[in-house]
Design a protein that fits this description.
- 80% of the residues lie in helices and 0% in strands.
- It has 103 residues and is mainly α.
C-alpha cells in the first residue's frame, strides 16, 4: 500500500503504530541510561568497600565483570532497534502461513 492510496484512517493508524514503536525504543534507551548510572555508582561503592576493608585482594573486579556482561547485553537489546527480533518474527509468520497454505 503506497501513501498515495492510503485513507486518512490508514495513515492515522500507521502514525499511531510508528509512535508506539518509537515510544518503546525511547523507553528502552532511557532504561539503559538508568542501568548504566546505577552500574557506575554501585561499582564505585563496591570498589571503595574493597579498598577500605580488604585492599590486599582486589575482589571488586568480579562483580564488575559480571555486571559488565549484563549491561552489555542490555545495551545490545536496547540499541539494536528491534530489527533482528522483527525480522525473526516476520520469518516465523511466513513459515506458519506457508505451513497452513496461506502464502
Amino acid at each position: 500500500m503506497s501513501n498515495l492510496s492510503a485513507s486518512p484512517a490508514d495513515v492515522a493508524a500507521i502514525e499511531r503504530e510508528i509512535r508506539a514503536k518509537a515510544r518503546r525504543r525511547v523507553r528502552a534507551k532511557v532504561g539503559l541510561m538508568w542501568h548504566f548510572a546505577i552500574f557506575a555508582m554501585a561499582n564505585l561503592a563496591i570498589y571503595e568497600i574493597n579498598q577500605r576493608f580488604s585492599p590486599g585482594y582486589q575482589w571488586f573486579v568480579w562483580p564488575l565483570c559480571a555486571w559488565s556482561i549484563g549491561i552489555a547485553l542490555h545495551a545490545f537489546a536496547a540499541l539494536s532497534g528491534g530489527g533482528m527480533t522483527e525480522d525473526m518474527l516476520r520469518v516465523e509468520i511466513e513459515k506458519e502461513k506457508r505451513r497452513r497454505g496461506m502464502a
